């Protein structure tokens, strides 16, 4: 609704105690500290628990080249690329809620970019927008989701190890026969991918 996040007083207090970061960097630093602390403390208590995040699918406008849209880094103050690159999470599910073909938010281009950021070998399970098949919405054909799953599978050797569908509601309701289509793609029970660093 355009309301500014209510952190003006806290930021002023930070500056008054010698803080030098601009407000955007300060916000990102706070979020980064939260993520690092959660990851470290959680694994100290339960070492085998998997910690993942599902961020907005575009890190920065223009990254990779040709991608445009809301910037997670600049608008949401989340350096999601850094979390993946530094291994501060066990898996990432970027919300890649766009089609394959439009170049401004291309599903395979974005997925490929996210995989490249996983310098520590963390898994990437892209989020797919099943809700967009609704006739009252964008009315995507079911074949779009099937193609996206196949693209993800083609990157399996690069740590794209599955898909996360939003929302399961459309699958349960079998909108446009998607449940049937997915049943042909998923004939066997999936095994949870091993995370050798845990």
UniProtKB/TrEMBL annotation:
Keywords: Signal. Pfam families: GHL10 (PF02638). Residues 2-133 form the Glycosyl hydrolase-like domain. InterPro entries: Divisome_Glycosyl_Hydrolase, GHL10. PANTHER family: GLYCOSYL HYDROLASE DIGH. This is Glycosyl hydrolase-like 10 domain-containing protein. It comes from Didymodactylos carnosus.
């Amino acid at each position: 609704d355009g309301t500014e996040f209510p952190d003006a007083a806290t930021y002023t207090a930070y500056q008054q105690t010698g803080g030098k970061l601009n407000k955007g960097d300060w916000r990102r630093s706070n979020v980064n500290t939260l993520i690092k602390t959660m990851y470290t403390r959680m694994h100290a208590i339960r070492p085998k628990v998997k910690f993942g995040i599902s961020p907005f699918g575009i890190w920065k406008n223009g990254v990779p080249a040709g991608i445009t849209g809301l910037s997670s880094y600049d608008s949401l103050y989340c350096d999601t690329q850094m979390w993946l690159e530094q291994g501060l999470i066990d898996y990432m599910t970027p919300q890649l809620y766009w089609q394959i073909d439009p170049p401004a938010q291309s599903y395979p281009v974005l997925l490929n970019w996210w995989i490249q950021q996983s310098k520590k070998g963390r898994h990437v399970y892209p989020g797919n927008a099943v809700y967009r098949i609704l006739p009252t919405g964008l009315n995507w054909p079911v074949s779009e989701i099937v193609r996206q799953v196949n693209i993800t599978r083609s990157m399996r050797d690069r740590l794209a190890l599955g898909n996360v569908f939003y929302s399961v509601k459309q699958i349960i309701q079998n909108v446009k026969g998607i449940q049937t289509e997915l049943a042909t793609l998923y004939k066997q029970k999936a095994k949870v991918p091993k995370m050798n660093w845990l």
